[in-house]
Amino acid sequence: MTERRGLTSRLVEWFDSRFGLSHPLFRPVPEYALNPFYWLGALAVVAFVIQGVTGMILMLYYIPSPTQAYSSTSYIFQSVSNGRFLETVHLYTAYAMIMLAFMHLMRGYFVSVHKRPREAMWLVGMLMGFVTLGFGFTGYLLPWTVVSKSATDVGVGMVSALPQPVSSLLTFLIVGGGGDTAELLRFFDLHIVVLPAAILVLLAVKMYMLETHGVSEPNSGQPLSSSSKLHPIFPDVTLYLFELSLIFGAGMLLLSAIFPVTLPPEYTPAAAATYTAQPDWYFLWIYQVLKVSVFEGPTGLAAALSVVTFVFAVLILLPFLDRGATRNISRRPLYTTLGLVFIAEVLVLSYWGYITPGAVIPTEQAALVIGGTALLISLGSLVVYRFLYSRAKSRLLTAPASLLPRTEAWTGVAFTILVGAGALAIGSSVNQLVSLALDGYSLLGIAGLAASLLGLGLVVLATAFLIYRLDLRTGTIGRRVAFLEAGWKNE
């Protein structure tokens, strides 16, 4: 063991002496931040790097022309060695990047990283999130399939409904001078040049601000004590990030190998006429809002987009709206409940849009689903805050230290069981809920509604468990989160 540790130390010293990796360019990282939830943004950057590598390989074969885009993509799938695997990895890491960015956003929301002095970091992070969505939007068109082209036409049509002159400007920036050739070339240029440059610039700005302010402190209100121990970027934090990146990359490669994507049919006007246009999953919740019948008519689309824009505006301006000094979740019921409502609405609307492609949603039905979801989440949050959260927290925070790992284990098991049961209940009944007749509810429809409410309630309870567990990890339990790092040091 001594010999192994000596070899490791010599390797670390060799790299440090040659490259100066331990030079104090970056802030040391507190021990409580050696937690995967603190590095969701870093994993999104890892996904971006994987996309860049696979994208450069795919560019060797892809031809950005309406007459050759599909054939060149098909050639990659069928004739290039491991071409289908590369396409799958590129697509799945794009999805992972969007999902990680959303998780990073919501984690930051719940732990209040937007509060002073990190308001500008929040704004830059939101811009990076929009750029990430831009990657998905522009890259989706490039294979020129009937699915991607039809979905892109929906997106461009949404942009055209914005007020003038914003609509004309954005349409020109996205589509170009008009025609399929100009549109595809513009999307290709945005995808491989403009958006990568934008996200690299924003990443540099955010890293500079992170160097200035450091990672956010735990929001539990507990004293840092031993958890304030600092770890240098090299080798401690570098090794930790390397481990996380390898786990993430291995997961992406494994998923890509087990579930390879298939290439949809080529886009033609005739094929598009028989296909129901539907955006990709990360825009489905917005599209479902646009399908509500109250937004039909000449001004309806603009009104629906105004609603969506308002939601994004609130998120962007959050540092200037939520200006209180309190960051502890247990003392922020209003903003915590609003965050849970937002997550639930996005999930419900996305799934609802997936099972109702192209269908116009009656206003009464939309009010029932959207309003019912918000009401259920709010009532669940009230119950948790009023009766469960404060009592459970006061007991657990005074429990002996030896009981805390077991507490963490049983809450994790409960969260998994509740989420699984809630997902099954929702998945088996939302379709019945959607098919309810407006002039009378059948017995089957009422049973579906009851099952949906039960499933949503279970998910609410599970989410409360998760938030509570995260709050503990950033407090008392957070002092012992660096298990991989501690194991490496004890070798």
Write the layout of secondary structure elements.
Elements: H1 2-19, E1 29-30, H2 40-59, H3 69-78, H4 83-110, H5 119-141, H6 146-160, H7 166-175, H8 180-213, E2 230-231, H9 233-258, H10 269-273, H11 284-290, H12 300-316, H13 318-321, H14 333-355, H15 363-397, H16 404-434, H17 443-473, H18 483-489
Antiparallel strand pairs: 1-2
Helix pairs in contact: 2-4, 2-9, 3-4, 4-5, 4-9, 5-6, 5-8, 11-14, 14-15, 15-17, 16-17
Key words describing this protein structure:
mainly alpha, Cytochrome Bc1 Complex, Chain C, two-stranded antiparallel sheet, disordered C terminus
Structurally, the number of domains stands at: 2
CATH topology value of the largest domain: Cytochrome Bc1 Complex, Chain C
Helical content (DSSP H or I, runs of 4+): over 70%
Provide the residue-averaged pLDDT: 80
Name the poorly predicted regions: 223-227, 395-408, 473-491
Tell me the radius of gyration.
Answer: 25 Å
- The count of strands amounts to 2
Beta-strand residue percentage: under 5%
The profile of the biggest β sheet is: 2 strands, antiparallel
**What would you call the structural class?**
mainly alpha
Shape: globular
Q: Could you tell me how far the N terminus lies from the C terminus, measured between alpha carbons in angstroms?
A: 7 Å
Give the strand order of the largest sheet, numbering strands 1, 2, ... along the chain: 1-2
Count of discrete alpha- or pi-helical segments spanning 4 or more residues: 18
CATH architecture of the largest domain: Up-down Bundle
The name of the CATH superfamily of the largest domain reads Cytochrome Bc1 Complex, Chain C
Under the CATH scheme, which class of the largest domain?
Answer: Mainly Alpha
Which H/E pattern describes the elements? Answer: HEHHHHHHHEHHHHHHHHHH
